[in-house]
Design a protein that fits this description.
The structure is a homodimer.
Chain A (H helix, E strand, L loop, with lengths): L14 E3 L8 H16 L7 E4 L1 H9 L8 H16 L9 E6 L10 E5 L3 H11 L2 H20 L3 H15 L9 H19 L7 H15 L3 H10 L8 E6 L10 E6 L11 E6 L3 H6 L7 H7 L1 H18 L3 E8 L2 E9 L4 H13 L5 H6 L6 H4 L3 E2 L7 E4 L1 E4 L2 E7 L2 H9 L4 E5 L7 H6 L2 E4 L7 H9 L3 E3 L4 E4 L2 E4 L2 E4 L3 E5 L4 E4 L4 E2 L5 H11 L5 E5 L3 H9 L5 E5 L1 H4 L5 H8 L4 H26 L3 E5 L15 H14 L11 H6 L1 H19 L6 E6 L5 H14 L5 E5 L2 H5 L1 H5 L4 E4 L1 H9 L3 H5 L2 H7 L13 H18 L4 E4 L7 H11 L3 E4 L4 H21 L3 H4 L1
Parallel strand pairs in A: 13-14, 14-15, 15-16, 23-24, 23-30, 24-25, 25-26, 26-27, 27-28, 28-29, 29-30
Antiparallel strand pairs in A: 1-2, 2-5, 3-4, 3-5, 6-7, 6-8, 8-9, 10-22, 11-21, 12-16, 13-20, 17-18, 18-19, 20-21
């Protein structure tokens, strides 16, 4: 976070020429500004310019949006140096861009004004000096449009309407077909529109233009889109944006000019090869918006070998400087290459893994650095579903594969509608001609994105990749109309089901069968590397032999939670379960339990076989009884259940007669389960396969519960470790006593969170919890990311007290947060667990997160001892 | 607790003559034995005897009920000294009683055998030496009966049946009318019965009798009745009983003999005057069982002035020795007085208070000791209801006022039935001819007890007083038959409603109107004395001006919990509340809130007036919304509610959208309440009456909730302290942060207990919780007595962390445990609260408990510093 200007740091200390600012960080210069400063320092061709530091923005908001008096004089004085360097004069020939630049990348989220400095005089100078009248007036009309939109909030469509009218009048289809005169007309019409909308003339004084533009950029930091983006990515609101005022270079002066974006290597696959797109006679925004389809890197190499060679050389320089893959923007003005921006490039998980491994091979980074290069959550992408390769599918259209993974959902053409339906839990594919920052909330709420236009670096592609959502872009044969789309003679209406595959670019009408991903050889190598850096176990929660097998494929080392409730719910067993529950005597109950035992024995047998000797922690029944009586298995049972139901009904079943309390009142149930485990164990061991069964009791709140039932289980399974879930706050604060009767603890963070907050997940998530997270009352949904202050503190107390009483105590986590990277780091570094256990598909994520946690701790331990105290 | 004989302490060190044991405690000698030893030492007439220490009993159970080989030889050797002293020979003329004697009084709970040593020879010696054949055979048949019952578990009714048969055959009504021959017959019939039941002869060897009797007494420690009694009174099971073997003296040798019980002062009123009852020609058991009505103290004084004088002198000696009111048993054998037992006498709360004050006046005890003399929970008695003096009642019969307070309930004649119905929550009056230890579970479950027979010291009276339950005994004009009772020509059947008044002895058919008690002048003096020894506030929970006034009558110093939900529930307000809840916009909601504000303003106005300047902590709405929609206030509302209901339904309302969460989503509700408070405050202050309103927010789990709503409230009520309930575990563990925005904490132990255990009170109490307490999984119902290990630890964490951040933080308790003496002691001495708040009727109890807590801490602090660590 940036220190604010509480003591009125002089403005003059916060405005820099690019060449003056080397050594300052992104927190001060913003990401873009920092890149320009670094590139300037490295001797790359960067247009001269001025950066206003983020501190000015922070102060602007702290002072209630008061624009600092001294800012513009300081900026103008710096700008005079730029005038010298360029030989151009602001207000005469020097045009600038005014851009935002946040410390963390927020692509397209804030406002930028190009061509600033133009007026009726300057445009003539521009025309004469470039000898390109059309270019000059095109620049001028673009400037008026952007300025009007950003500074005066004039709806951009109104300007577009005038262009469309002009094109219609001329009978042409594309902007390029409009000539200089048309542009001149448009300038006048735009100025007229500006006056109608604002009640004042378009400002002709470039200094006034600049002042207003700088303020608009500052204001864009708190624009709706920017705030939404920061919320989604959990970026601190107080950082503020820097403002860059950079000499304009033009990619649209003719066919010897153009603009492009590039990646130093392939951001989708990680392939070690320059990746760029270039649009002739265009400004950068034309490339990013995807309105025209640019030259691919192959086309650049073939048609513009010089440019390709320059970009390759610069790419290499950038990678060596930054020691990471870079994403850059460039413009060619009348044949001269200018670098406009560089930053660490966003990439798919697959690319992130390959790049990290390649950088290690090239000895550019250490193994630890490589492990830290991949966001664990991003791995979810690689483990995304794809279309079943065995399935017969009819590809409707094929677009550009922009963000991997396949998604199925209802086609929705309106962003707001998509956002609405998505919030209601509907699976939606957002289908747009192209996306813009305004579409961000719709993209967040969708399963995937499909666009008609754009390339791999267009807005939709970049944002979708960042979010880990499947995206297909540039599906040009899809014609998108208002609320429907046409693909050949097929019409897609709102609500029609589509499948998209962001790895192939395929678009299919209807729901294609999806299958789960396998781990690639690169990812396997990468995770095996990560395994070497972790010391805590990664176990899986699995209730079936299939889940056990899947988890082993992902290299789970044990099974931290094998629930037995689901087994009870199978249709064939339900009559017995129901009869057992409504039994009116222990004898009767035992009779039905005897039947259930045979089922359970088979379950455990299959799971032990699948687990191949790995530890299997079986949680005995946590059965909210009435839940099993909803649907009587026969009319006769219906009558019996109806009689029993009133006495079983609970006002708050979450806090009712469940878990170990059931074992206390009906010990015969746990006795049956222990017997089934014992018999299954013998049967599997008879096949020469080791069985490590551990018995876990749910919902303990008092040590005596455990001491009593531990004895019962130990009678049947003398060699099996017996432990307990820690999922009531009381278990946590009396853990010292409980540890006397436990071989292990396993934190059930779902229930523990519910009880610690006094908040039922089901009742909270649909209601106030969303608001709590949105309004930052809570930093996260505590059911997804562990609540460190509350639940986490209880976990620390429990672990510390438990180990004090029982130094051999094993401690694990098997709640949903056991698969969340941020939570895993806390569990390992703050709670000190021995293992975490999560759903099979999150095992790779947990392996990486566990390694990163240890690497972070080592780094911090080396640096200072503060870390432990800071949480 | 007694050290057990783990290292095989010699038996010889654990058997004492009465005169050898002076200086040993009740823990070793049992209460009875201790009394006999003390009286022997004081030179009072005590029959010689031997005491087997409690350690022998403890060892007996530790060794799996193995009777120690060396015990009987040791006993016999001591008994030879008794033979010397009495000039009698065991097996020839010496008869003994074998009695249990626990360290804590458990009246009638364990077994006693009298007249032990009798056989066909000894009875003849007894006959010839007393020259009373009837007496001798009566003693013999009693012995066979008791021995048969206690040692061989022969049903007593079988013996009684033989007596009834004999009386019927003779055409007589009372046992006294049976002559010596009849008794001889009965001895033979009893021996025959004994043989039929056991398959063996009645043992004629007195040594064998003694050995079996001692073992039976040891076994009675774990008899059903004894275990139940200990559970009710929370007495440690491991203490064990002593066994007394004491020379028999006979109150039934003729009209110059008799037995009696006495209290050194009146146990009902505390009046400083000897209180005794005496039954001529009877053994002690006849007095205690209440089978015949004894002479009152007035009758003794009039008819037996010598006995009266002796008892008076001895009573004085006992009080000076024990510095407390004593309860004693005595027998007159042929004109000679023998003291058989003394112990601290049970008394009503009223008596306890008066006796404590009188002892202070007489400078026999200090003020602190006086305060410690009254059990706070016992005060509940004094505050028991009585029959409205204004009401017209028809007294059906009048009995002896045996235990104060009035009760209304269904007449039930069977103990087991009463226990059953009582557990189901029915109000029951247990109606019995007389009660016996077998009836204890029925008494526990009843509202009150009514007996046909017995005096103020009969079993029913003593036990009911101990339990603080209303009792009327000796209602002789009530004839109790099987399952019904006749009073004149009125027949009372099972289920008929009765009212009893244990302070007057009145029995009324039907439900008489009951009113609450006032505080007596004695109690007022006593509590005022106690107030001087406490430092923590005693506040009350009150929702109405009436409750506020009642609490002030009991000297509540503030109001720790004024709930606003109940106000909302009034019929006239319900339509507005319902419309408010189903409002679909903030504007609409505000409209209905505006109406509700007027009601609330009036509520607060009345409460502020009644509180007369005392602090009033108003808890803002904790409204489970759907609870208010059960009964639509109109058909139109019914339709509207039906539509809204599905979206309000919660699976676990306890963990749902309630408390401060409601304030977060609908701040306008709390805003309205704050406005109503502000306006009411102004109006009351305008009358010259001070208002100390404090605002309390419910169910906080995160500091930011509080910081936001505190701001809202402070805008409207800038001078009012704003604080929070601590009732979620998360609030407790994040209390440091929460304290930054709180002027006070108030522990809501009900919700805190529910969430800490993960146990809903409603769902638990009817189901597993009873079993948990019965089986000692938990020491108490944690909703009644605070759970120190779990909930208590959270309270300590919260208080410590809270005060660290905010040294001015006031901490209180307003949950139900705030009125429980054991909990209050913990809150004051372990948590360090500033005040406790409870229902108005428990304010006197809380005042006393708070004083006692401080006195105990001082005593412990003086003694050692261990106390704090021991919990």
């Amino acid at each position: 976070m940036v220190d604010s200007l509480t003591t009125q740091t002089a403005i003059s200390d916060n405005v820099y020429l690019l060449e003056e600012a080397y050594g300052l960080g992104k927190d001060v210069l913003g990401g873009k500004g920092h890149g320009l400063v670094e590139m300037t320092h490295a001797g790359l061709p960067v247009p001269p310019g001025v950066i206003i530091s983020t501190r000015v923005c922070a102060e602007y908001y702290e002072n209630g949006k008061k624009f600092p008096e001294e800012l513009m004089p300081t900026v103008m004085s710096k700008l005079s140096v730029v005038e010298e360097k360029t030989g151009k004069k602001f207000g005469k020939s020097l045009l600038v861009s005014v851009r935002s630049g946040a410390p963390l990348s927020m692509p397209g989220m804030m406002d930028t004004i190009l061509n600033l400095g133009l007026n009726d005089e300057v445009v003539q100078f521009l025309e004469s000096s470039t000898n390109n009248e059309r270019f000059a007036y095109d620049a001028y009309r673009r400037f008026i449009q952007m300025y009007g939109k950003i500074v005066e909030r004039i709806d951009s469509k109104k300007f577009e309407g005038l262009i469309d009218k002009k094109k219609a009048a001329k009978g042409v289809e594309s902007d390029v077909e409009l000539n200089a005169l048309d542009m001149k007309d448009l300038v006048n019409e735009f100025k007229q529109l500006f006056k109608e909308e604002t009640g004042k003339e378009f400002p002709s004084d470039p200094k006034e233009q600049l002042r207003r533009a700088v303020e608009a950029v500052l204001q864009s930091w708190n624009g709706k889109r920017a705030v939404e983006y920061r919320r989604f990515y959990k970026i601190d609101d107080s950082m503020g944006t820097a403002v860059g005022i950079i000499t304009m270079v033009f990619g649209n002066t003719g066919d010897n000019s153009g603009s492009g974006v590039g990646f130093t290597r392939n951001p989708s696959t990680g392939e070690k090869k320059l990746f760029a797109e270039f649009l002739i006679n265009a400004q950068g925004e034309d490339v990013v918006s995807g309105a025209r389809t640019p030259y691919s890197i192959e086309e650049i190499e073939e048609r513009m070998p010089d440019l390709y060679a320059q970009l390759s050389r610069i790419g290499g320089l950038l990678e060596r400087h930054y020691k990471d893959m870079q994403d850059f923007e460039f413009t060619v003005e009348n044949g001269k290459l200018w670098m406009l921006q560089t930053r660490t490039g966003k990439r798919t998980a697959q690319a992130a893994v390959k790049i990290a491994l390649d950088f290690v091979s090239d000895r550019m980074i250490t193994e630890e650095e490589a492990i830290m290069r991949v966001e664990p959550a991003q791995l979810d992408q690689v483990l995304h579903k794809h279309i079943d390769p065995e399935a017969h599918i009819d590809v409707l259209v094929r677009g550009i594969a922009a963000s991997p993974g396949a998604a199925v959902g209802k086609a929705v053409f309106d962003t707001n509608k998509a956002a609405e339906l998505g919030k209601l839990g509907e699976s939606v594919i957002l289908v747009r001609r192209e996306t813009a920052p305004e579409d961000i909330h719709g993209m967040i709420a969708s399963q995937g994105v499909l666009t008609q236009r754009g390339g791999k670096t267009c807005h939709a592609a970049v944002v979708a990749r960042g979010m880990g959502k499947p995206a297909v872009v540039g599906a040009e044969s899809l014609v998108i109309l208002e609320n429907r789309a046409q693909a050949g003679d097929v019409m897609i209406s709102e609500g029609d089901i589509l499948t998209i595959d962001g790895a192939t670019g395929d678009v299919i009408l209807g729901a294609a069968p999806l299958v789960d991903a396998q781990i690639s050889a690169d990812l396997d190598r990468f995770l095996t590397l990560a395994d070497r850096f972790r010391k805590t176990g990664v176990w899986a929660n699995a209730d079936t032999p299939q889940m056990v097998a899947k988890a082993i494929e992902f290299k789970a080392e044990g099974f931290g939670l094998v629930r037995t409730e689901r087994m009870f719910n199978a249709k064939i067993r339900l009559p017995y379960v129901q009869r057992m529950i409504i039994s009116s005597s222990t004898e009767e109950r035992k009779k039905w339990l005897e039947k259930l035992k045979e089922f359970q024995k088979r379950d455990f047998y299959d799971i032990f076989l699948a687990a191949k000797g790995r530890p299997v922690v079986i949680r005995l029944l946590d059965l909210p009884q009435h839940e099993f009586l909803h649907a009587p298995a026969s009319p006769e049972l219906g009558d019996l259940i109806a009689k029993k139901l009133p006495s079983l009904k609970e006002d708050n079943p979450m806090l009712g007669h469940r878990g170990i309390r059931l074992g206390m009142t009906y010990p015969e149930i746990y006795e049956m389960q222990a017997q089934a485990i014992a018999e299954a164990k013998v049967a599997v061991e008879a096949k020469g396969i080791e069985v490590q069964a551990e018995i876990m009791l749910p919902l303990t709140s008092e040590a005596k519960e455990l001491s009593r039932l531990r004895e019962l289980i130990k009678r049947i399974l003398p060699d099996s470790p017996v432990g307990t879930m820690i999922e009531t706050p009381r278990a946590a604060v009396t853990a010292g006593e409980i540890a006397k009767y436990s071989d292990f603890f396993s934190f059930g963070t779902n229930d523990l969170t519910q009880m610690t907050f006094g908040m039922s997940r089901d009742d909270a998530e649909g209601k106030f919890l969303v608001k709590y997270v949105e309004e930052k009352i809570l930093p996260n949904n505590p059911f997804e990311v562990v609540d460190k202050q509350g639940v986490g503190r209880l976990m620390k107390i429990a672990t510390e007290d438990g180990r004090l009483q029982n130094p051999k105590l094993e401690v694990g986590v098997c709640g949903e947060t056991g698969g969340d990277p941020e939570s895993i780091e806390f569990f390992i570094n703050e709670v000190g667990v021995n293992y975490t256990s999560c759903s099979p598909y999150r095992v790779p994520i947990a392996r990486l997160a566990s390694a990163q946690a240890l690497i972070k701790r080592k780094a911090t331990d080396g640096e200072s001892k503060k870390y432990a105290a800071s949480v």
